[in-house]
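Schema walk-through. Below, the input block comes first and the output block second. Nothing else is stored per chain. Lengths vary across the set, and this one has 527 residues.
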Amino acid sequence: MTGPIPFDDRYDEPDQLRDQLRRILRHRVLIALGILLGALGGLAVSAQRAHTYSSTSEVLVRSTTDPFGTVGVAADNQVSMTTEQQIATSAAVALRAARILGRPDTQAGSLGARLRVTNPMKSQVLRFEYSARQPQAAARGANAFAEAYLADRKMRNDATVQRATRALDQQIAVLNQVLARGQLDSTGARTASQSQLYNLQKRVLDIKSRDTDGGDVVRRSVAPALPVGPGLRTLLVLGLLCGLLLGLVLAWVRSALDNRVRSVGEVQASLHAPVLGVLPPDDRSGDGLLKVGRTDGARTEAYRALAFRLRQVGSAAGPGRVLVVAPRRAGAAEEVAANLAAALAEGGRDVLLVDAAPDTSGLAARLPLMPYEAPTLEEAFLPAGSVLVDVDVNGRFAFSSSGAFGSHSGAAVSEQVDRALFDADSSTVVVTRPFLAHADVLAVAQRVDGIVVVAGLNSTRRDDLREVQELIACSGGRLLGAVLDTGRPRRRPRVLRRSPKYGPASRVDTSAMELPVQDGALTASRR
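--- output ---
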């Protein structure tokens, strides 16, 4: 077993999109929460706008010529509609409207806040839109503001007329005094003064005869039948769409922040190695550590399939020396190592299970070891310090521990384990401490022919798997692949995602799967 297993980890864009979509849809609770919030928001907006009515009045602003000029100006240039629009929303007009409605002057500001004045393009029309809680109040408010604006503009025009005629009246009074006193000696001077007096009086009459009305109400407001804004159905649909978008964003953020392994594809992407097996939930958790050779079930068949795949990637004599290790927690690795050794022994070969960390694992106490008596002929050829395991298999299954059958030296790899790794002619399965928890595990990784990483569904972090892959590559070890443990059946298992290169992923209750070697890569298929 030399060199790494060829593994094509190319990840096409459709696979990335499908993978991202499945990550988002995994958080259905957040999506449902977003939809619920959107629906509630739509109902709230609908309830708020259900009691808001708006009514509109339109006023045609009348233009007049300049009273001070003798030459007329075009009517379109005599009125600044932008200025008139600002005046219509002023406090003076709001005060007049409050008095028309019979409200106190202190409420003029609140009434003005409900008004919106617009000017249609290229027109001399002001549109007064007033909103209120009742339809009749909205109609009265729009009409009151239109009347208040016209009254204010008439007052401004009257004030302009008074200012213009005041100076002319003073000139007329002076000329009348001169003519009455007879201060003019010549007839020509008297005639000129009379002519000037006539012109001034005529000009005053022209100014006073002009219409000072501000304009005309071309459309009076009526009580609206329906409230403003879209209806309940429209707001509800908009709320659902916005809620769906919010839920998708929340689910995307949650999936981006979630660093735990959720599928076969994530394990393969993190380790750059194939997934050799998927262990279904253990329905018989009370039957002990060993499943192979003692119980039947989907988990037992998964271990047998795992052993078959390891024999496929190994030589004719077996997979050689295999290290089974977990990134952080060693409990699942111990079970996988023990059952993998038993499954390999079912093929009629000699298999040695080596516990490289007996002081922390307690694996010897959990295995059904045969009682030690006088060595038989079969036991005489076992590696030193090992003992047979009581399991129904065709080959010999032995267990060796650096501390169970001798003194433990306390070193990272004891002499007994080191001797078992190098002297054993049979297939050897080694289990040790968690890979990232103890640095001395690298010493064991450098002495084996291949490494199998055990990852837990919904528990192992992707960063831990990447770190394991980097450490194995730096140490020169050979990463065979990973085993994905779906855990106990107390939680409903999720459907694993479709792997980009290995076909549809099986559900977590999958029994044994065969992964024959095709061009050096592992391809999943049903046995």
